[in-house]
Write a structure and sequence with these properties.
Layout: E1 2-8, H1 15-27, E2 33-39, H2 43-50, E3 56-58, H3 68-76, E4 81-86, H4 89-102, E5 107-111, H5 123-131, E6 134-137, H6 140-149, E7 158-160, H7 179-182, E8 190-195, H8 204-211, E9 219-224, H9 229-241, E10 248-252, H10 257-261, E11 266-269, H11 279-286, E12 291-294, E13 309-312, H12 317-329, H13 331-349, H14 351-367
Parallel strand pairs: 1-2, 1-4, 2-3, 4-5, 5-6, 6-7, 8-9, 8-11, 9-10, 11-12, 12-13
Length: 368
């Protein structure tokens, strides 16, 4: 049996946390692995894993000046075959130090970078980068960016395993409203959805501007997610000032997101920043929904314009508005895009394919 420890230290739930939670949720049913989460003391993060009955160990996880975390983690790594899977450079430092202290040659460190933070090079970071056993990139775009800025990382240390999504939501006992009924929609109106952090990086401001160019009688829009108080205040003010109150509904954070996604006609995720994968886009594809997204990151690796979705330029509300109009006004077209999106997800991006590649990597690292 292989012991797998996922380290998560961020304060907010995001892509790295979702990646880790999907993996541990699936892996806990695999008899070949024991899985545990190592978290900083952030109650909102810990609670999410505890709801899935995942064991959680709490460490400070404060980075280079934190000597307590590596020592305590090393005690967990003294025996057996261990994989420590980390998602930030700070946690990679902790994992590498813990492996050295444990003096267990059957412990390997796997690092999945999330986001496009440029690696910094100094004496310590060079040592850490070289000591990581395997880098796993969620897209070719993420790989190209990292290796361009970290040329000293050896090619054999790197691997691209496209990310996928697993439906782990415990929505069986949760009430999910019928959105079309609640919003009093007609059959000929399109139900559009956005779900992510409500912030400029995710293009919420661009989306709202685009909606001002669209016939208000043709759609209803739901925004699922939360943002910082200032960002939420700006969003609500824009909705009121531009008379979008009857068209745009804020639903806040929803844990059982998949039961909401199933109800929409299409999704819009117009990220202003380059996405290393774009997990929200994959969730729409999983449920056979076409997606309108931007072409500034890894999205073109799996979204083919006018075949399984629509690609637009970032920060371009006019072009985004035209794409939304296209899907609002042509039900047959969006149905065809959605069917192709689901076929592409099932054949190329499904979770079993991702999981098999990850577990094969874990086994190869320890058996070679």
């Amino acid at each position: 049996m292989i012991n797998v420890f996922h380290i998560v230290s961020n304060k907010a739930w995001g892509g790295a946390e979702r990646y880790a939670s999907d993996l541990v949720a699936h892996m806990r049913h695999d008899p070949n692995f024991y899985v545990e989460v190592v978290s900083a003391k952030h109650d909102n993060i810990i609670e999410q894993f505890q709801k899935m009955d995942i064991p959680v160990s709490i460490l400070p996880l404060k980075g280079i000046r934190d000597f307590d975390s590596p020592v305590r983690l090393a005690r967990m790594l003294k025996k057996g075959k261990n994989i420590v899977h980390v998602h930030t450079y700070r946690d990679a430092l902790t994992a590498v130090m813990a492996r050295i202290i444990s003096d267990n040659p059957n412990t390997k460190v796997v690092f999945t970078p999330h986001g496009l933070k440029r690696p910094t090079f100094n004496y310590v970071s060079k040592k850490i980068y070289r000591s990581i056993d395997q880098y796993v990139f969620v897209s070719q775009f993420a790989y190209d960016y990292f290796t361009m800025h970290a040329p000293r990382v050896k090619k054999q240390q790197t691997l691209v395993i496209p990310e996928s999504v697993l439906n782990t939501d415990t929505s069986a006992h949760a009430h999910v409203p019928n959105l079309r009924t609640e919003l009093k929609m007609r059959d000929d109106q399109a139900l559009i959805m956005f779900h992510s952090r409500l912030c400029k990086d995710k293009g919420v401001d661009v989306l709202l501007k685009a909606l001002t160019h669209i016939d208000r009688d043709s759609y209803k829009m739901v925004l699922i997610g939360e943002g910082q108080p200032k960002a939420m205040s700006l969003i609500k003010s824009f909705i009121i000032e531009n008379k979008l109150v009857s068209n745009v509904k804020l639903l806040g954070f929803q844990r059982n997101i998949h039961d909401y996604l199933k109800q929409c006609d299409f999704g819009v995720q117009p990220s202003s920043i380059a996405e290393v994968q774009g997990i929200s886009n994959l969730e729409y594809m999983k449920h056979g929904k076409p997606i309108i997204t931007t072409n500034n990151g890894a999205q073109p690796e799996y979204v083919v314009d006018r075949e399984n979705g629509l690609l637009v330029k970032p920060n371009n509300p006019e072009q985004l508005a035209e794409a939304i109009k296209m899907l609002c006004n042509d039900k047959e077209f969006r149905t065809r895009l959605g069917a192709q999106a689901k076929q592409d997800f099932d054949s190329k991006l499904n979770y079993e394919t991702f999981y098999n590649k990850i577990t094969t990597l874990y086994n190869n690292l320890l058996n070679n």
